[in-house]
User: Fold Large ribosomal subunit protein bL21 from Synechococcus sp..
Amino acid sequence: MSETPSKAKASKPAESKAQASDSSGANQYAIVEASGQQFWLQPNRYYDFDRLEGEVGDKVSLKEVLLVSGKAGASLGQPYVKDAVVNLKVLAHRRGPKVIVYKMQKKKKTRRKNGHRQELTRVMVESITVGGKPLS
Assistant:
C-alpha cells in the first residue's frame, strides 16, 4: 500500500512538535534532596517545599543534587553530583491543606479532634548548573 501525501504531511508537524519540546528544556531535570525528601526539578517550574529560610524574592541554592540530566546525558552522584547547584527563587510562604486527625475510643466516651496545616514555601527553579555552566 502506498502512503498518500496527506498522511505524510500530517506526520511532519507531529515530529516538529516533538523536537520543539526537546529544545525547550523538557528533558532537562535534576533530582535533589530538600526538606528531607527527594524532588524531581525542572527549570522554570514552581514547587512547594517544607518551610525554607528566606524572605519572598530571596535566592536559595540547593547543593544536594543527586542526579542531573540534560541533552549531553545523565550524571549520577555518589551521593551528590560534584559542583552541581540548583538555583531557586522564593515566590511565597504558604500553608498546605488542612488535615484532620480524629481519634475515638469506642465505648469509652473519649474523642479527640486535631487539625494540622503544614507550613510550605513555594519556589521557582531558575537554573540548574554543573561546574558553573548552565545545564544544556
